[in-house]
Structure formats: structure tokens, C-alpha cells
Amino acid sequence: FPDKVCGIYVTANNRNIMLRAQMPHIGLREDILRQLAYVVGKDPEHATLYDWRIALSHAVRERIVDRWFASTRRTYEEGAKRVYYLSMEFLIGRLLEDAITNLRLDEAAELAFRELGIDYAAVLLDEPDAALGNGGLGRLAACFLESLSTIGCPAYGYGIRYEHGLFRQSFEDGRQVEAPETWLLQHHVWEFERPEAMFQIGFGGEVREAGARAVWEPTEAVFAEAYDTPIVGWQGRWANTLRLWSARAVDPFDLERFNLGDYVAAAAPEALARTISRVLYPDDTTEPGKELRLKQEFFFTAASLRDILRRFDSEYDDIRKLPAKVAIQLNDTHPAIAGPELVRLLHDERGLEFDEAVALARGTLSYTNHTLLPEALEKWSEGLMGRLLPRHMTLIERIDALHARENPTRKAAARANGQVNMGELSFVMAHKVNGVSALHTELMKATVFEDLHQLHPDRIVNQTNGVTPRRWLLSCNPRLSALVTEAIGEDWVDDLEQLARLEPRLSDAGFVEGFAAAKRANKVDLSNWMAQGHDLLVDPEAMFDVQIKRIHEYKRQHLNILEAIALWQEIRANPDAGWAPRVKIFGGKAAPGYVFAKKIIRLINDVARVVNADPVTSPHLKVVFLPNYNVSLAERLIPAADLSEQISTAGKEASGTGNMKFALNGALTIGTLDGANVEIRERVGEENFFLFGMTADEVVNRRDIANHAAKAIAADTRLELALKAIREGAFSPKERDRYRDITDNLAGPDYFLVCSDFADYWRAQREADAAYRDSAAWTRKAALNTARSGWFSSDRTIRGYMGEIWNAGSLNP
Ligand code: B1N
């Protein structure tokens, strides 16, 4: 445990704090009551769940702070290299249970609340999700932060403190309705405001040449104010910081206008400045192309770089040490402006030669690509970029010129056709570029970065994504975790490959029964929750078949619902064929402007209404779309899943991380050879994975076949009948052509090859049915999925980044 834990505290209290640091459960109940009285200001008699939650959070937070200070001190003492993870999104979800798990306070907290007569589970559930992200990219950033702390790698996450995270989703008449999410309305216990860490960030204006250097004189400016959240790792051995920036006006209030009675105009500067950190763009793999988005990107990137250099300056006096002491990871291209901005700081503001500034920046920066979808590859018009960031525009031109000088055979440039290509820019400004699964990395080399890869064959590396086992097994699935710990001890929690030691236990009937019982109990819990909260009655004996992720054509939720329709029709035609009962569960949000994805949501809801009301099929098939899918709902669903739907068009899903969470929790995957599915299948064994569909290469060839969709439909009566039912209004009798867009698309261009993959998907689903009927064999396959998923820990991924990209070490004792 870190020494000098509480050197700075008043001596009278020292002994208690010492004790608490080593044994955090000591005095927890007293601390909760103290916090309730003196921080929340409530008498236990009148405390609400909210009050108890705030009191508990403060009691837990106290126990993190000592470790947090100790970690920072250690980093300074050792002169260690720091890692900075710049990300537009951090989808952290709830923090209280995470902190309690990592400090191992669960039993003490449960006991304390039992003694107090308060429902502990309800206290935990009272916390709103911090939904500062859209999906996989943001959740990955959150898993990485937790792993960095568990490993003890000195690191900071940098992002935006959005006032409103991802919208809240509800359904009206089956349609998605978006409402603003208001996570900050309640007191956010975990953050510390840092008014002293404030930077002025400029936009627009002119560039003035001053001798060899240029001076940028922006016309508009806002303040970036820091808020820090400690992120504690497993067993509280280390804590890092998530620093989020909030925008505020430089001149918050126009008194002259106010005195003239124009109150709205008087408050306008503040409102305008604050819009920068007002809302998260609700995009996942689509490009919004909005000026405000570019402002957000520059705002948080510039503030983070200033902060990083300030911290560097406080320790070192030679800027040439920057790459040795600082590693900055760009989470996709959203912070790509870091390249030119860092060059500007080094060249314009610190007087380094341009070429040296570029070399130092490149040694410090690295870039992760998360998607190859053309619509998600960020490009900004030169007009917009030149207006908002005139100096950066010139620097990008010079970076291109330098790179062309270094590489005379180079074809493309970051600045081309009136646009700035942020992927190209990130590539040339990074010493390493990584993909997020083996397949994705190979496709990067062969497609979007083909030319640059030829020039720099050592720059692209792979780091397959991972998930934190603390949240995604230990805390979300207590039954399975307890079973695992009983079987192999608890070292698996931060050494997930230990799960392999479960394999020999598969010949032990007691263990296998325990595994099946844990899954069953999780399914009963989920059924009860769906009955109470959503008025849905499902049979926990049925197979729970789950697809939870953003709604996107390439993820093909419509393939899944087409199969449900075909199955429904087939059961109706032949109700006594001994069907394996199924509950198809969907969850996910569509970007508000993504019309087709919203149609898919409505179709699923319409199908659910019709199918669930059919007395003939209802013992065998239910369809459920749970609203407002978020991290907390994932934690509830994944432990209860039997079948994990990972059915994207091959070549389109960069990695996926939900796929890993399901396998880890003992669900079998039905999936294509896409993203990390490929690696999951390799590890869990092909006999424990339901594979279907075309490969990435076959997908490309299939598109060249004229009328590929029509041909697939003509060859498959089931598909034809399912499409016909939609077209004839079986699920929208009052508006028969409601789904014309979908059926026309599927029968026509069908770019994502839903029809071409349908027959093979159907076959794989029936194989899953047959496998599920043999429950002993199924349990064995499920347990093998858990036992062989150890490699998918984000600890492994982070160690890969530390070794291959950051050259950073761990300070954990
Ligand atoms: O990043 C995840 C991957 O597991 C997923 O396969 C991938 O789809 C996801 C623009 C994105 N790629 N690109 C985004 C998010 C927000 C935005 O505004 C693009 N998300 C992914 C983690 O590697």
C-alpha cells in the first residue's frame, strides 16, 4: 500500500485515517451517518434514498482521495512518463458501485445499510448514469481508464464535461422519442471543481507574421474550466484522474446592456460560451459536420494540451524531453487538431524550429482509428477550418509539405480537394496508428491508409479492444463471479487469463450445475424486472437472445427482426414442431437524424406488438425492445443472456466490445466474421460459436453481382414471405406502406447484404435452437466461453498500448 498516505492530515485524526486507508471497511457506517448529517444536512429519520446515496458516495470518496494523492506523489517522485488519453467521449455509467467494488467495500456497505434498515440495492440504483458517450468508443475509453488505474500506469483522461449526455429514449406508438438527459441536475459527488486550472481558448481572428514566427490573434474566446474525477483501480492500489472541461464566458455578463433593460442580451455571452460544453453529439459512426462540433473538438484538445505542457514545465526544463515523458493518445480523429495545435505551441509560442516541433509532436502523439465507414471519417472544409482556426490551416499545409519532402512518392495529403482529411492528418502526426481488432487493422492497411502504410510500414499496429473484468464480470454478475472465485480463487479479477483454469472444472458436475444455476437465477431476475418495470411476461426457461448496441444499418438489427418474422410465420404454420422457446431482446438508440435507423426501431416495436399478442406462437416466441439502453441496462442484460447477436456486415464493425462482455458472461455468439468476433471465435472454439454469413472479401464481391438482393429473395421462400408480410402491413395494418423504405431498400440496393446473408443466418439460428435443447451441452459451451475469454480484458489491451505505443511503465507495488 502507498506510504505516506496521510502525511498532510491533522495528527489527531491521523491514526484513524491510517487505519481507514489500509482497511477501508472500518467505520463505514459511522462515516455514512456523519456525511449524512454534516454534508447532506439530513437527519436519518428524514433521509431519502437520494440523501443516503450522496452520504454513501461521500464516505466512499473519502477513501479514494488518500490513494489518489499518493498516486500523484509517486508519479512526481519517480519522474514517471504520463499517459494522456484524449477522447470526445467517456461513457462511464454509474461510479458508486464501481468504486465500492474496487475498494472491496461491498460487504461492509451492505452490512451498514442492513443495520440502518435501508435498501442498499436501491441506494446504488438511485445514481444516474453518466452517459458522456454514444457507444463502444466512449465505453472503451471508460474501460481503459479503469484498467490504467488497476495497472498503476500514471494517466489522465481528458474530455468534455457535457451538461447533457446522450439523450433519453422512450417510445411513443413504437417510435423513438428523444428527451434531454440531465445527469448534472443532481449533485455530482465524484467531481472536484478546479477553478485554478482555467485556460482561455480562442477561435477565429487573424494571423500576424512577427519575424520568422506567427502570432494568432483570435477574435473570440472562452474559458475552459477543469473538473476532476478520481478513477480508482482494483483494490484501490492506484487512482488516476479524469479531467473534463467545461466552457464558460470570459466576460460572463454585459452590465451595460443589463442596465438598459435588455436582460436576455446581457446574459447572451455566457449562454453562447456554454453551448460548447452543452451537449454530446448523438452520433455513432456518422459525421455531424457542424461548426459547433469542430469548436468542441478544438476546445477540449487545446485546453488539454495547455494543461499537459503546464504540468510538464513544472517538472522539466527541456522541452525536448516531451516524447520521453508524455504520451498522448488520440481516441479517433475527434482530437486530431492536437497535431497542428501542439506544433503551434512548440513553434509559434516556444520558438522551436518547425521541423523539430513536428518531430517532437509526432514522438508524443499516437492515434487510434475506430472505423472505416466513409461517412464517419472526419473531413472539414478548408473554409470552415480557415475561419475558425486560421493558424492551424497554414500549419496543416506546412505539415503536408514537410511530409511530402520526407516522402517524395507520397500521393495523398491531409489537405486535398478543399477539405482537411483528419485521418490523414492524424496518421502523419502520429508515431503509431492502431486499429482495434486484427481484421480491422488489416483492412486499415489495405483500404483507407493504403498509401500511408506503404510509406510507413511500421507505423500501423493492432491493439484488439478489451473490457474491464471488474465492471463486466465481478460487479455486474455476482453469482458467476462467486462461482469462479470459489473454483479458482480471486486472482482472475486482475489477471483474467486465469479463467482458463476453469476448464478442468468442467468435468465436475457440481461446478457445471453451479454455472447453469447462476445463469438461470440471472434470467429469473431479469424476467422479474421486465414484468415489474415493463409489464412484459417472459419465461426464464426460454433462450434469451439479445442484441444491444446502437441502431445502425451495418449492425443489421433488421436482419434479426426479419428472422423473428420468419420464425413467427413458421411456428404459426407448424405450432407443434417442438420449437425451442425464445425471447428476442433488443436495446439501442438511433441518432436522432438517422431516419432509416429510427424506422428499424419502429418496425421492431410493431413486430413485437403483433407477435406477442399471438396466442399460437406466444409460448414459443416473444420480442422485446427495452427503451433507453445504457451502461446500467447492459449490466443487467448481459449476465442473463444465452445468445449474443453480433451480426454486422463483415468488414464494417471495427471491433465491437459488447461481443466480449457476452462471451465473458457465458453467452454463445451468433455472428459473422467481423471485428473482434473473429478473435473471439478463435479463442472460444468454433464449436462454441454459431458462425454464419459472408466474409469481408465475399461481401465486396457480392456487391458486384447484379440484383444480388432480388436473387437472394427469389431463392428463399422464408425471406420472401417475411418481406411480404411487412410490405402488406401485417405489422402496421393502419398504415400499410409504413415500412416501404425498408422493404424497397432490402429488395433493391441492400448495401449491407441483409438478404444475401439471411438464409445462412436462419440456418445458424436453427443450429442454436438444436444446441439449446440439449441443456447440458449448452451449459458446457457457455462455460467454455467464460473460461476462454480471459484474453479480452482491457488490462491486456492497455499493457499492449503501454509496450508498443506509449513506452510507459507501471508504478503499482
Ligand atoms: O468504436 C468501438 C468499436 O468496438 C466499434 O466497432 C466501433 O463502431 C466504435 C463518430 C464513432 N467507431 N467510430 C465511432 C463514435 C462517435 C462518433 O461521433 C464515430 N465509434 C466506433 C471501440 O473501438
UniProtKB/TrEMBL annotation:
N6-(pyridoxal phosphate)lysine PTM sites in chain numbering: 661
Superkingdom of source: Bacteria
Subcellular location: Cytoplasm
Cofactors: pyridoxal 5'-phosphate
SUPFAM superfamilies: UDP-Glycosyltransferase/glycogen phosphorylase
GO molecular function annotations of the record: glycogen phosphorylase activity; pyridoxal phosphate binding
Matches recorded under InterPro entries: Glycg_phsphrylas (IPR011833), Glyco_trans_35 (IPR000811), Pyridoxal_P_attach_site (IPR035090)
GO biological process terms, semicolon-separated: glycogen catabolic process
GO CC terms in record: cytoplasm
Catalytic activity: [(1->4)-alpha-D-glucosyl](n) + phosphate = [(1->4)-alpha-D-glucosyl](n-1) + alpha-D-glucose 1-phosphate
EC numbers for this chain: 2.4.1.1
Pfam families named in the record: Phosphorylase (PF00343)
Main location as per UniProt: cytoplasm
Keywords: Allosteric enzyme, Carbohydrate metabolism, Cytoplasm, Glycosyltransferase, Pyridoxal phosphate, Transferase
Entry function: Allosteric enzyme that catalyzes the rate-limiting step in glycogen catabolism, the phosphorolytic cleavage of glycogen to produce glucose-1-phosphate, and plays a central role in maintaining cellular and organismal glucose homeostasis.
Annotated family: Belongs to the glycogen phosphorylase family.
Name assigned to this protein: Alpha-1,4 glucan phosphorylase
Organism lineage string: Bacteria, Pseudomonadati, Pseudomonadota, Alphaproteobacteria, Rhodobacterales
